[in-house]
Amino acid sequence: MKMKQNILFVLCLLLLSGIADAQPTINASNWPYGSDQIGNHWSYYNTSGNVAMSIATINPYQQGGTWNFTTGPTDITATSEIRTVAQAPGPPPSNTTYTEYQTSGGSTQWLYEDEMANGTFARGFEQGGTIYSYDAPHWNIYRYPMTFATTWSSSWTWGEAELGTPVQETRSNEIVGWGTVTVPFGSSLSCLVIRTLQTTYAEYMGVPLINDSYRLYEWIVPGIGSVVTIQSINNEVNWYYNTAAGFYRLFNSNLGGDLIPPSITSVTSLSDTPNPGPYTVQATITDLSGIDSARIYYSIAGGAWTLRNPETVVGSLYTFQIPQLSGSPTQQVRYYIWAKDASSNHNTATNPANAPTGYFSFNWIPDNVPPQFSNVTIWPSPTNFNGPYPVQGTITDDNGVLFASIHYKFGGGAWQEAPADGNVGNLYSFTIPAISATTIIRYYLEAVDNSGYFNTG
Questions:
Q1: Considering only CA atoms, which of 196, 116, 216, 182 is closest in space to residue 150?
Q2: Using the 8-state DSSP alphabet, how is residue 56 labeled?
């Protein structure tokens, strides 16, 4: 079944650094593989079909041997990447601590894994939109410490709920060789060789539905993981086979867990303004390992960079503030955003990416100009009209009008003030109340701008 064949390309493993000229040993205390290594990835060349492969000539059973796999099929590629549980289809099987997203020649699957003190276990997998959980005992992908002649076995059941029949799987593993291996990724890499017999069986009313068995050799390198996997054709009975159904060779990998810096996007770009501040700057900051810290750096008039922590954090939206400015004349404000992720590597990023050489900037241009008036209604004198008296005026300001009012007085009375009745664009309307006796009416308009200096005209 193609679905089960896809499961067979579980390739990746991150191991302890070894010594190229001696047999490496894999220790549990140095197994940096799991949730603290989100972002690890491996890329392999692979064959698209059966390929001639003489295991006797390759001879995996050497101690202190050398293997060279620099050449071989490049028909298709396979990849594996460690991702968070939240990224995988859910709900995940219980005890899942991280997931492994695998591809091979267009086929994809998610493997749900659990890193424990006595081994790394598979809890299930996802293919085609269905999650298959493993019933105990769980598949122990690798067991440590591993050295020459180490053996371990695993068996598990799955598929009864989804397929209507239980599927039995087994793995029998033995480390049969060690030495150095050369692949497209690197040369003379210290390695162990694991030999694995894996079987898959299911039947219905005594009739076999699945009856697969594969023999695999896997070269694992300290600090890197699987660099070569050779998989037999189905139901191969000889360990020295001459035809392989899969030949995986590592050509690219990262070696340090999460090497991807935070993503900083949608940073507020401030324009030149007469407003002295404070100025609000927002940014969207994300990272698979989470964000450890974030800051805004700003510089006034070419001065030293000053940092501030975010004022608020809501999900991935970070809000910063540049304090209010003082003094004159025109001052340039420069700023950029910095963030550090929560991975063990503490990757950092800035926006702009080349900060502080690159930065966002705007000019603070102090506004000392009051609002300007034109086209103010001038009532004829004398007039027989006893009011109320509408007054209009066009009021403009580069920074906008905060407030406008009319001041008026009747005869020798006190000055009174009334706010604008409203405005349509720059045209403001006012009203002087009606009078009951002949008198002199005096009036003027007043407006305050929105510059922050509150210039009055």
A1: 196
A2: H
Structure token digits, residue 282: 């927002």
DSSP 324: P
Tokens read off for 174? 């033995």
For 317-369, write each residue's pLDDT tens digit: 999 999 998 877 688 999 999 999 887 678 889 999 999 999 999 998 877 78
What confidence score (pLDDT) does residue 7 get?
Answer: 34
Q: Which amino acid is at 4?
A: K
65 vs 63: CA distance, rounded Å: 5
CA distance 81 to 141: 16
63 in Cβ contact with 24 (< 8 Å): no
Say which residues have a Cβ less than 8 Å from residue 409's Cβ, sequence separation at least 6: 415, 416, 441, 442, 443
Only one residue has tokens 């991935």, namely 316
Average pLDDT, the chain: 88
Highest mean pLDDT among 73-77, 344-348, 452-456: 73-77
HSE (side-chain half, CA atoms, 13 Å) at 319? 8
Evaluate if residue 9 carries a pLDDT over 90.
Answer: no
The DSSP-derived string for 62-99 is -EEEEEE-SSS--SEEEEEEEE-GGGSSSSPPTT--EE
Tokens of 414: 């006190």
Give residues with Cβ within 8 angstroms of 227, minimum separation 6.
69, 181, 183, 185, 186, 189, 191, 219, 220, 221, 249, 250
Query: How far, in Å, are 180, 214, 267 from residue 350 at the CA level?
Result: 41, 49, 11
The alpha carbon of 76 is separated from its chain's Cα centroid by a whole number of angstroms, namely 27
E strands, 105-206, where? 107-116, 119-127, 130-133, 139-142, 151-158, 167-183, 186-204
Q: From CA 83, how far away is CA 101, in angstroms rounded?
A: 7
The whole-angstrom separation of Cα 138 and Cα 109 is 18
Judged on CB neighbours under 10 Å (0-12, 13-18, 19+), 223 is middle
> 2 in helix, strand or coil?
helix
